[in-house]
Design brief:
This protein is mainly alpha-helical. Strand 2 and strand 3 form a beta hairpin. It is built from 14 helices and 3 strands. The longest helix has 42 residues. A 3-stranded mixed beta sheet has the order 1-3-2, sandwiched between helices.
C-alpha cells in the first residue's frame, strides 16, 4: 500500500472511530442522565414522588433502554433486517432482468468489497430498471444502481465510484444510524425483534425517499474514494462523475447528488483529498468499450 493511501486510510479510520464512539457515548450518557434525573426527582421532591407512580416510571424506562438497544445492534441483526428491507424495496422498484448489466455491477462490487471497511458481511448488488440517475443502499450490504446511472458513466471507473460511495454508506452504518434516530423519535421501544414491521418500514423509507445527512454524504465520499483507490480504480473518476452529472442536470440534479451538502462542496473535498494525499491511481479510465456497450443500451 502506498504512503498516500495509508495516510488517507488513517484519516478516515480516525474520523469514523471518533464519530461512532461519540455517538455511543452520547446515547449512553443520555440514558444514564435520564435515569439519574428521574431518581433524584423522586427522592428529593415529595410532590414529584407522589405524582410519579410506577406506571410513569415504566413508561420512562423503555425510552432509555431503547437508546441502548438501538445503539448495539450487531452485524447479524443488521444483515437480517437488511434482507427484510430489501424484500420490501423489491416490491416498490423494478429490478432489471438485464443479465449483462447485473453482471457488470456485481463484478465491480465484488472487486470493491474486499478493500472496503466491512468485507466480512454479505453484499448484494442489484440493478434497478430506471433511466433516472440514481443509486442507493440499505443496511446489511444491499446496493442498488439504476440503469440510468450505468448509461451516464463514461467508463468503468466512474461506475465503480458510484458503487464505492454506496458501499461507503453501508460500511459507515449510515442508514442504521438514521433508523435509530427515527425509531427513537417514533417511540419504538425495542429492537430485539428485527422483524418489527415498523423498523422495516423506516428502512424502506430511508432507502427510497429520505436524504442522507451532510456528515453521512461526506463520510461515504471519503470511504468510497479510499475503496476505489485501494482497488486500483482512478480516484479522479469520483469527482469527475459528480461534476458531469451536476452540470448535465442543471437545476434538476439527480437525487443522490441533490441532497445536502452541495455537490460542489463534495467535489472540492474529494479533489482536496486526492491532491493532499498525492493519489495517482488511473485504473478504469481508458475503457473504450464501455460507452459503446452501455450508453444507449437501456433506451
Amino acid at each position: 500500500m502506498s504512503n498516500a493511501i495509508a495516510k488517507l486510510l488513517n484519516s478516515i479510520s480516525s474520523i469514523s472511530s471518533d464519530l461512532i464512539s461519540s455517538k455511543v457515548r452520547h446515547y449512553g450518557k443520555f440514558a444514564i442522565a435520564l435515569l439519574i434525573s428521574t431518581a433524584l426527582a423522586v427522592s428529593l421532591n415529595p410532590f414529584v414522588a407522589k405524582a410519579l407512580d410506577l406506571s410513569d416510571l415504566f413508561r420512562i424506562l423503555p425510552s432509555a433502554v431503547q437508546i441502548i438497544q438501538l445503539s448495539n445492534i450487531g452485524d447479524n441483526e443488521e444483515v437480517a433486517l437488511g434482507r427484510q428491507i430489501d424484500a420490501q424495496i423489491r416490491q416498490e422498484v423494478r429490478i432489471s432482468q438485464d443479465r449483462a448489466a447485473n453482471a457488470l455491477v456485481k463484478r465491480l462490487g465484488q472487486i470493491l468489497v474486499p478493500t472496503s471497511d466491512r468485507p466480512n458481511i454479505p453484499y448484494t448488488f442489484q440493478v434497478v430498471d430506471d433511466n433516472n440517475l440514481n443509486a442507493f443502499a440499505t443496511m446489511g450490504g444491499f446496493v442498488y444502481i439504476n440503469t440510468g446511472t450505468i448509461a451516464a458513466a463514461d467508463n468503468v471507473a466512474q461506475l465503480a465510484s458510484v458503487i464505492g460511495h454506496e458501499i461507503g454508506h453501508i460500511t459507515g452504518r449510515h442508514s442504521l444510524e438514521q433508523m435509530k434516530q427515527t425509531a427513537i423519535a417514533q417511540g419504538i421501544a425495542n429492537i430485539a425483534g428485527v422483524a418489527d414491521d415498523r423498523l422495516v418500514g423506516i428502512g424502506v423509507n430511508l432507502a427510497l425517499r429520505l436524504p442522507n445527512s451532510r456528515e453521512a454524504e461526506f463520510d461515504a465520499d471519503r470511504r468510497g474514494l479510499l475503496n476505489i483507490t485501494k482497488s486500483g480504480f482512478a480516484a479522479s473518476a469520483m469527482p469527475a462523475f459528480m461534476r458531469k452529472l451536476a452540470s448535465a442536470g442543471g437545476g434538476n440534479a439527480p437525487s443522490f447528488l441533490s441532497t445536502h451538502p452541495a455537490t460542489s462542496d463534495r467535489i472540492n473535498a474529494l479533489n482536496q483529498s486526492i491532491q493532499s494525499n498525492g493519489i495517482r491511481t488511473a485504473g478504469g479510465l481508458n475503457d473504450s468499450e464501455y460507452q459503446r456497450i452501455w450508453k444507449n443500451r437501456f433506451r
